[in-house]
C-alpha cells in the first residue's frame, strides 16, 4: 500500500508523482496504456496559452508560475536522466490579432513581456512567413518543448525512484470504495491500494467518477495535428495566426495545429482535417508546400469550463482527489498544477491560491 495512488500517467500524473516522491512519499502510478501516450504525446508543446489574455485569471496564475519553472525542470530532467526535452526559448509571434489593445493591456496588468513589432522585426527572424503583413504581437519569453521527449524524461525520472511504482497497461475497472472512502483502484491484474487516490486521467477523468454519481464537467475535445519534415531554419519560432500555429523543432520539423472537435472519445483522423491543416500550414509558411507530411494524428484534450482545471479533493468522498481539466493547456499548466496539488496534499504553503481550482461549488 502506497501513500498515493495516481490514476493517469500523462504529464499531470507524472509531474505530480515526481513532486510527491521528491517529498518522500510513496506513489503508485497507474495507466491503462503507457506513460505519456495520450494528450501529453499528442499536443504541440507551446509553453503558453494561445491568446493568453482571453483566459480567466486563474489560468494566467498557473501559466505564469509554470512558464518560469520549465527552464529549471528541463535542466533537472536532463541531468537526472540524460533525456533532452528540447526546450526552445525563441518567443512567439501572433499575427493579425483583432483584440491587440486587450492583449497589450493584459500584458501590462500581469507584467508579461509583449510588444507590437513591425514587419522588419517579423520578417528578419522569419523570412519564410507569408508576405504582406505589417507586423505582429511579439512575446519573447514564450518557449516550446518537445512533449514526447518531456514524457520520456519524466518517465525515466520516475523509473529511477524507489518511491514510485509504475503500473502501465493496467486499466482501472473501478474505484475501491468502502464506507464513502476510496482506498485505491481495481484493475484486471489486481487491486492497487493507497492512502489517497488522485484522478489525473485527462479527458477520461469524469468517466472514472460517474459510478460514484459525481458529475465532473470534463469532456473530450479532439485536436488533429500534422508534422512536416523540413530543412532546419524553415521556421524558427512559434507563429500563431487565425487560431492556428506552427511550431519548429530542433531537427527542423514543423508542427501545425490544431482542430477543435467535440465528437466524444473518437480519436480517428479525417481527410477534411488533413486538408484544412495542410492549407493552414501553407498559408502561414508557403515554403512548406514542397515538404513531406510525415504524420497526421489526433488526441483528446480534457475540456473544462473556461479551461480552469479541477485541483483538489472530491467533496463528500474521503480519500479521493482530482487534478484534471487543463483543456488546451495541459503542458503549460502542468508544473504549477502539480506543485499546487502537492502543496495541498502535503500540508505545505500553496504556491498559488487554490480556491479557484477546488471542486467544491463547481460540480
Automatic annotation (TrEMBL):
<dbReference type="InterPro" id="IPR036188">
    <property type="entry name" value="FAD/NAD-bd_sf"/>
</dbReference>
<dbReference type="GO" id="GO:0009229">
    <property type="term" value="P:thiamine diphosphate biosynthetic process"/>
</dbReference>
<keyword id="KW-0560">Oxidoreductase</keyword>
<dbReference type="GO" id="GO:0016491">
    <property type="term" value="F:oxidoreductase activity"/>
</dbReference>
<dbReference type="GO" id="GO:0009228">
    <property type="term" value="P:thiamine biosynthetic process"/>
</dbReference>
<keyword id="KW-0784">Thiamine biosynthesis</keyword>
<protein>
    <submittedName>
        <fullName>Glycine oxidase</fullName>
    </submittedName>
</protein>
<dbReference type="GO" id="GO:0050660">
    <property type="term" value="F:flavin adenine dinucleotide binding"/>
</dbReference>
<dbReference type="Pfam" id="PF01266">
    <property type="entry name" value="DAO"/>
</dbReference>
<dbReference type="GO" id="GO:0005737">
    <property type="term" value="C:cytoplasm"/>
</dbReference>
<feature type="domain" description="FAD dependent oxidoreductase">
    <location>
        <begin position="3"/>
        <end position="344"/>
    </location>
</feature>
<dbReference type="InterPro" id="IPR006076">
    <property type="entry name" value="FAD-dep_OxRdtase"/>
</dbReference>
<comment type="pathway">
    <text>Cofactor biosynthesis; thiamine diphosphate biosynthesis.</text>
</comment>
<dbReference type="InterPro" id="IPR012727">
    <property type="entry name" value="Gly_oxidase_ThiO"/>
</dbReference>
Amino acid at each position: 500500500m502506497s501513500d498515493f495512488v495516481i490514476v493517469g500517467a500523462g504529464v499531470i500524473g507524472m509531474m505530480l508523482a515526481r513532486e510527491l516522491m521528491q517529498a518522500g512519499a510513496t506513489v503508485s502510478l497507474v495507466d491503462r496504456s503507457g506513460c505519456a501516450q495520450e494528450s501529453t504525446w499528442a499536443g504541440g508543446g507551446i509553453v503558453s496559452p494561445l491568446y493568453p489574455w482571453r483566459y480567466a485569471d486563474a489560468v494566467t496564475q498557473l501559466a505564469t508560475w509554470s512558464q518560469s519553472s520549465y527552464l529549471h525542470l528541463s535542466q533537472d530532467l536532463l541531468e537526472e536522466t540524460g533525456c533532452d526535452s528540447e526546450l526552445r526559448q525563441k518567443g512567439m509571434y501572433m499575427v493579425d490579432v483583432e483584440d491587440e489593445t486587450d492583449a497589450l493591456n493584459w500584458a501590462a496588468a500581469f507584467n508579461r513581456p509583449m510588444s507590437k513589432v513591425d514587419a522588419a522585426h517579423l520578417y528578419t527572424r522569419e523570412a519564410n512567413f507569408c508576405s504582406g503583413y505589417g507586423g505582429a504581437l511579439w512575446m519573447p519569453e514564450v518557449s516550446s518543448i518537445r512533449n514526447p521527449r518531456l514524457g520520456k524524461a519524466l518517465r525515466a525520472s520516475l523509473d529511477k525512484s524507489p518511491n514510485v511504482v509504475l503500473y502501465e497497461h493496467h486499466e482501472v475497472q473501478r474505484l475501491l470504495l468502502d464506507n464513502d472512502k476510496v482506498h485505491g483502484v481495481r484493475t484486471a491484474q489486481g487491486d492497487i491500494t493507497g492512502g489517497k487516490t488522485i484522478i489525473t486521467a485527462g479527458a477520461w477523468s469524469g468517466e472514472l467518477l460517474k459510478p460514484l454519481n459525481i458529475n465532473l464537467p470534463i469532456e473530450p475535445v479532439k485536436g488533429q495535428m500534422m508534422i512536416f519534415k523540413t530543412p532546419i531554419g524553415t521556421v524558427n519560432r512559434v507563429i500563431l495566426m487565425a487560431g492556428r500555429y506552427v511550431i519548429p523543432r530542433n531537427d527542423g520539423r514543423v508542427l501545425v495545429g490544431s482542430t477543435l472537435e467535440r465528437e466524444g472519445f473518437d480519436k480517428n483522423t479525417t481527410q477534411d482535417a488533413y486538408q484544412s491543416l495542410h492549407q493552414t500550414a501553407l498559408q502561414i509558411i508557403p515554403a512548406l508546400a514542397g515538404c513531406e507530411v510525415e504524420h497526421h494524428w489526433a488526441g483528446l484534450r480534457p475540456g473544462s469550463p473556461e479551461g480552469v482545471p479541477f485541483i483538489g479533493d472530491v467533496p463528500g468522498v474521503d480519500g479521493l482527489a482530482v487534478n484534471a481539466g487543463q483543456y488546451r493547456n495541459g503542458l503549460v499548466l502542468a508544473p504549477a498544477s502539480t506543485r499546487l496539488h502537492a502543496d495541498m496534499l502535503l500540508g505545505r504553503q500553496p504556491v498559488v491560491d487554490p480556491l479557484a481550482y477546488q471542486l467544491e461549488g463547481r460540480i
